[in-house]
Design brief:
3 domains, FAD/NAD(P)-binding domain, binds flavin-adenine dinucleotide, D-Amino Acid Oxidase, Chain A, domain 2, 30% helix, 5-stranded antiparallel beta sheet, Arc Repressor Mutant, subunit A
Length: 485
């Protein structure tokens, strides 16, 4: 059985930020492109659970792919965010020093930044630091300001990229796991959980699954291990308490534990960085919280544990080389690896996409521009509209007047739009609209969102899931009632 009879020019495996960015990049050209994802929705891997920082590139070792693609990716963000209407802000990165030893190390970081091509890096003394961020610990002795650092809502970006790629002709197949790959008569025959696909080129953007997918063509040139990061989100009432993303001096394992203002006005604390033995180990822990809270309280003494509204963890797909592993496989140059994409993969993704498009061209793929390419992704966010615009909108579609998530001000119209945009689960709606992300964490709006999912997708109550098979929200004897608005 074939998933599609059409032979694809490029099959992209994995719909995270990397696969999404590449799908959108390739949709500029006259190509048949398919993006396949094993989960029931896009952005359900590492790309939904990270710090959401658009890194400046000051942390990456000069000469590495990480350094090159992070700095380039960072520069691509402003235009990308505007075209896709993605929640992004250039809030600046502050690296702070707690003592004289750390102060001396700041100059190494400045040099690294300069080698990576950064401009505008400023060294700040204690008073300048206080003026910029009055709620930082007054004992911090100084810091570095890197103005190009930013923040983004990572899953919003993935949805923007994939939706725009689809607008421009890319086919998306979710719930489709690649299980086996054969090379026959100059094409790949890809066996998935939902049927076969033929493709001339494959890009392996499978995140934690990248080494396994590489193994499907007999390529065992790299390995992937998982490094877990726990993150804790604080109430939006703290909006503006900290404006820049606050970094300590980096450790050999990571950029350290951070205080991160989010685009939506929350503050996030984290992440930890600990190697774990399983690709499913996504728990958060008392030990993780203690490590994060103790450390960040040293940077921002006013933080309160009672402001935590939720926590989550994500797994960095770290490669054995320490750098991104991007390039054609030695087994078959029509198969491009994009593995080991740990931090700063979110930042680098738009630049990785351009780089991989070049690699595909080097491998013989013809890239002919499509005149009809539309770079824009339109989106309605009621909360961000002026009163006049809201009034105009609800006259046309009254569902935008019915606020379902009161914490985050999300309307029924946006929830129905999210389902049209591809959401099939409670999490899919939540990540697309923010419904359930506020102080009450969905206590109020979840039943209504479930009812709308049932109506739009013709589901029975027990078929509504949190995030796909095995996560049903309702069990047992359910009484079917007529739906009520
Ligand atoms: C705690 C934490 C904090 C981070 N913070 C930042 C940050 O602030 N800034 C930054 O730049 N980076 C950050 N990162 C890194 C960043 O999140 C990742 O680099 C990025 O999300 C990787 O994207 P990806 O598309 O490669 O992987 P993923 O998002 O994991 O996508 C890969 C997809 O492939 C799918 N897949 C796997 N196997 C198969 C198969 N056989 N068939 C079909 N589909 C398959 C998976 O289901 C998955 O959806 C952080 C990471 C973590 C864990």
């Amino acid at each position: 059985m074939f998933l599609t009879e059409t032979e694809m020019d490029v099959l992209i495996i994995g719909a995270g930020v990397v696969g999404g960015a590449l799908a959108r990049e390739l949709s500029r050209y006259q190509l048949q492109v398919m993006l396949v994802e094993k989960e029931v929705d896009v952005a359900f891997g590492t790309s939904k659970a990270n710090s959401g920082i658009v890194h400046s590139g000051i942390h990456d070792h000069p000469g590495t792919l990480k350094a090159k693609l992070c700095v380039k990716g960072n520069r691509l963000y402003p235009q990308l965010a505007e075209e896709l209407d993605v929640l992004y802000k250039q809030n600046g990165t502050l690296v702070v020093a707690r003592n004289e030893d750390e102060w001396k190390l700041l100059s190494e970081l400045v040099n690294q930044g300069l080698q990576n091509g950064l401009t505008g890096v400023q060294v700040l003394g204690r008073d300048e630091l206080r003026r910029l961020e009055p709620n930082l610990n007054p004992e911090l002795i100084g810091g570095l300001l890197v103005p190009s650092g930013g923040i983004v809502v990572p899953f919003d970006l993935v949805y923007g990229l994939v939706e725009n790629a689809i607008t421009n002709g890319v086919q998306l197949a979710v719930g489709t796991e690649v299980q086996q790959i054969q090379w026959e008569s100059s094409q790949f025959i890809v066996h998935t959980s939902r049927g076969m696909v033929k493709a001339r080129y494959i890009v392996n953007a499978a995140g934690l699954g990248a080494a396994k997918v590489a193994g499907m063509i007999g390529d065992e040139s790299f390995t992937i291990y998982a490094r877990k990061g726990e993150e804790y989100l604080l109430d939006r009432k703290l909006e503006g308490y900290i404006k820049h993303t606050i970094f300590p001096l980096p450790t050999p394992e990571s950029k350290g534990i951070l205080v991160i203002p989010t685009v939506e006005g929350n503050i996030m604390l984290g992440p930890t960085a600990h190697r774990v033995g399983s690709f499913d180990e996504l728990s958060t822990s008392a030990a993780g919280w203690d490590e994060i809270f103790r450390f960040t309280k040293g940077l921002v003494p006013g933080l309160q544990a009672s402001d935590v509204i939720t926590s989550f963890s994500g797994l960095r797909a770290a490669g054995n080389t320490g750098d991104f592993i991007i390039g054609p496989s030695e087994k078959n140059f029509h198969f491009i690896h994009v593995g080991g994409i740990d931090s700063p993969g979110l930042t680098a993704a738009p630049a990785i996409a351009q780089y991989v498009a070049e690699l595909l061209e080097d491998a013989g793929l013809q890239l002919e521009h499509k005149r009809s390419f539309n770079p824009l992704r339109p989106l309605i966010r009621v909360r961000d509209l002026s009163l006049e615009d809201r009034n105009r909108l609800v006259v046309k579609r009254p569902a935008y007047a019915n606020i379902v998530c009161r914490c985050e001000m999300v309307s029924e119209g946006e929830i129905r739009d999210a389902i049209l945009r591809g959401a099939t689960t409670l999490d899919g709606v939540k990540l697309r609209t923010r419904s359930g992300m506020g102080r009450c964490q969905g206590g109020f709006c979840s039943p209504t969102v479930m009812r709308i999912l049932m109506e739009e997708l013709k589901l029975k109550p027990e078929e509504v899931t949190k995030n796909g098979p095995g996560s049903s929200l309702l069990f047992g004897n359910l009484r079917n009632r007529p739906s009520q608005s």
